[in-house]
Records
---
Amino acid sequence: MIGKSTKCVFGPDFKSADSSQTILKTSSFKYVPVEDLKVVGRDSKICKTSVSVTERDVRQGKLSTAQHELVIQAAENMSRTGKKEVIQKDQTIFL
């Protein structure tokens, strides 16, 4: 496919395949508001850097520079998708 593709599913969505591969040119964003459950035989990942942050760390303001950048990126993505209201006030981001 060349161009844009949009998929909206209201209700359950099921995918079954022998294998699946995704190659992206820039970035990927995944938003799961309740729970993300994954059951795998082996989970492998190769990355240059890995950054994670908890909502508790955000509320307490205990963020490294990399974590702060991750929160900013998540807020920008959620603003674009309209999934969650994002408010920035005094350099504190509330998700």
---
Amino acid sequence: MNIDLKRGVMYLFLMMAISVCIVNLIVNARIAVGAVIFTLTALSIPVMTIPGARYNFFIISALLFSAGYTFYCVNAFDIFPGIDAVRYYQFLMSNNSLGEILSGAVERVIKVHESGETDGPGSFFIFGLPVHLFYNLMPAKDAVYIVIFNFIFKMMGVLTISRLFSRVCSVNFRCVLLSLIIFSPTFNYFVSVFGKDTFIFFMTILLAAALVSFSVTPGRVTKLFLAISMLILAGYCFLLRPYSPVTALLYVMFTLEYCRLIKFAMIGTVLIVVLVAVLKSILLIINWPMIFTFMYMAPNPSQFMNYDGFTLLPVLGVIITLMLIFVRTIKYTTLIFDRKLAASVMCVLIYSAIMTLVGFYAIRTEYSFGSVGDAVFRKQLLIMPLVIFSLLLYLRTRVAGTSDEEN
């Protein structure tokens, strides 16, 4: 894992250095972003591919598609998809130094505590910190440069997923899994807009990898260092998005194959949802399985408005997935339901329950049938690797190797 960490840091610094060189050579921001995306894609091919793997061409094809589609999104869609994106950019423009951001965060915490509430500095300050540091390397505070930031952390996130899932799947399975994650139109779209979703994805997966490393690393000094690092990372993830550390734990339980622990977590989740439903709203029990379904079917193909704009390609992907599931179910009557499929589905179910509860407490209006509190399309991103993993397991027609050592 130490070697993986060193390679990851070198990969990150190399991508940053190349990006800085290109944006300072090309004046037009959009053209510079395109040049960076395609250059980093070429750089990532030897990093993302798995030595000796049969399906490396899937990864290469997905990387090329990802670069092309991300650049298309940059030019075709608004860099500010919502009010939060505008506010993040305004925050960037209004703070000219690291000191201003830190002092502003402290002032906000003091003001909140004086009002009798308990809260952190807010995601604007927490996300604004790394974005500010990144923009210090850019020639200007052009909003489109955020795509470079997002693209770099998408690549880092995928690389971390590859290392994390190497424990639970074969080389060929991992190639297909990584290809679909890289190919994902949903993922590529969020890379192309001003927002924190891609960065949170990376931080969550990084926390999961750190937790796995802690559980398998010997030595008291090393464990102490990892424990301190994990606490800092978990705190940062919590401030970015409060449920991201819990999501990281889901990845840890799945990766380390703690099937019994996942079952206990599932039982606990059911009890919590039922308890809150009895005390607050019985609709929680109805909306939970609905949100679980949307984790696999977002954007919703039954809504005609999703067949336009940035949701068009993702919704076509949902339709193709449904067709594959239908053919697999009809043609092959025997389902290979093993503990990995069960564990991945339960992790997605637990995450869906978390989203149900988050939606319930986030909604300012009356909670009703189908209420989710926010766009499921965006919430799906954090759990996407496990969603794809479970789909691939369901679609298989025979049992293959389960780890790299079996190939």
---
Amino acid sequence: MTKLIKTLILFLPFVILSCSSDNDNDGDTINKTYKVRYEASCDNPNVTLCILYTTKNADIEHISEDAKEVFVKSPFSTELEMKYGDYCYISVYANGEDGETISDELTFTSSIFVDGIKKAETNNKTVSVSYYLLTD
């Protein structure tokens, strides 16, 4: 019986330490940050683009309130740091102001890169929307 108790006492610290390190890894995942790059373009570089993109964990129902809006010529690219669980979203369409002629034949592209790897890309007429949830 004393042999069993000694064996349990000997291995108990290893069991406790292994459980402790599992919990530490969960915290590392939740606190993980990602380098997110948004890209947007139009096949006509003379068109002013209206781009809406998230910079933090945004509520999908309130994207227009939580996101950043910019007006630029094609192509567009921006890079920022986001956290695990954040919702990445980008939309691009023609601004249509300043007397620009908007054609139904325009093609828009939006892309999301996470740590240099393309995670989402959409090509579409009229408007392009890409989204990705940072969970891996």
